[in-house]
Design brief:
By secondary structure, the protein is an alpha/beta fold. The chain folds into 2 domains: about 1-80 and about 170-258, P-loop containing nucleotide triphosphate hydrolases (Rossmann fold), CATH 3.40.50; about 90-170, no CATH class. The chain is built from 10 helices and 10 strands. A 6-stranded mixed sheet has the order 6-7-8-3-9-10, with helices on both faces. A 4-stranded antiparallel sheet has the order 2-1-4-5, covered by helices on one side. The longest helix is centred in the middle third of the chain and has 20 residues, at about 120-140. It is globular, with a radius of gyration of 19 Å. The two termini are about 30 Å apart. Bound molecules: adenosine-5'-triphosphate. Adenosine-5'-triphosphate binds next to strand 2 and helix 1. This is ABC transporter ATP-binding protein. It holds the Pfam family BCA_ABC_TP_C. Keywords: ATP-binding, Nucleotide-binding, Transport. GO terms for molecular function: ATP binding; ATP hydrolysis activity.
Length: about 260
């Protein structure tokens, strides 16, 4: 088994009188695709928000890549190598697919303000590099033929893939995907599965929240199940998806179509 990249111990988040996430322990190894599932309101998004740095935990610890990063804000988590997508699409609708990816990739470049104003050789090299990397990221997400199309004019499935491309442009080591298959038809779901496999093969660890069990079963190495903020099961999909307690609290109510 690969080294641990993410570990969460005793993670808890309280909103007023409601404990949305309660004392969760979780370990993710480098190179895994791990699914986080559970019924609506189970605490999946709250847990994701804490991992991505947009919500501080009430208690507990988060370790990423050997460092304690509990409560660090999202831009610091981003610098550490954690990147995420959102349930609601976060693309800029009036920018082309390429410019959406390029603006995310830009944050990884080194040439400063002065270099861009004076268009130094270093700046021009970096611009060319940025363009090349952005096109590679689009190609990786099957969108290079749509590079110049405004994000708004892309199909729904393409917009969801663009969102992943934007997150990948930050060159993360851990990618958090929040319901990437939501609203997708079966063909788009299958494309997504293939894309997540490519992401894993490229060396990026993936943690995803997802309700489409066909996608989850096809792509995840392991699953964690939350119910009312508590982890109730973990293990390989074949084991977890046949767990009577998981079926009782969750799968009994879900559609399995992707
Ligand atoms: N900012 C907040 N303030 C108060 N309560 C919140 C807040 N965010 C989430 N909650 C509550 O915490 C609980 C967990 O919500 P969360 O969105 O994390 O669940 P979820 O598993 O992601 O659900 P879904 O599958 O519907 O997205 C819910 O009862 C929700 O109403």
């Amino acid at each position: 088994m690969n080294a641990e990249i993410l570990s969460v111990t005793g993670l808890t988040r309280i909103f007023g009188g409601l404990t949305a996430v309660r004392d969760v322990n979780m370990t993710v190894h480098a190179g895994e695709v791990v699914g986080l599932i559970g019924p609506n309101g189970a605490g999946k998004t709250t847990l994701f928000n804490m991992l991505g740095g947009s919500l501080p935990p009430s208690s507990g610890r988060i370790r990423f890549d050997g460092a304690d990063c509990t409560g660090e804000p999202s831009h610091v988590m981003g610098q550490r190598g954690v990147s995420r997508t959102f349930q609601i699409t976060s693309v800029f609708p009036s920018l082309s697919a390429l410019d959406n990816v390029r603006s995310a990739a830009y944050r990884t470049t080194k040439a400063g303000w002065g270099a861009s104003v004076f268009r130094t050789a270093a700046y021009r090299r970096e611009e060319a590099d940025l363009h090349r990397r952005s096109m590679e990221t689009l190609a990786f997400c099957d969108l290079d033929h749509r590079a110049d199309i405004l994000a708004d004019a892309l199909s729904y499935g393409e917009q969801r893939r663009l969102e992943i491309a934007i997150a990948l442009a930050a060159q993360p080591r851990l990618l958090l995907l929040d319901e990437p298959a939501a609203g997708m038809n079966p063909e788009e779901g299958q494309r997504l599965v293939e894309m997540i496999r490519r992401i894993r093969a490229s060396g990026v660890t993936v943690l995803l929240v997802e309700h489409h069990m066909r996608v989850v079963a096809a792509v995840c190495d392991r699953l964690f199940v939350l119910d009312h903020g508590v982890k109730i099961a973990e293990g390989p999909p074949a084991q977890v998806l046949n767990d009577p307690e998981v079926i009782r609290v969750y799968l009994g109510r879900e559609t399995v179509d992707a």
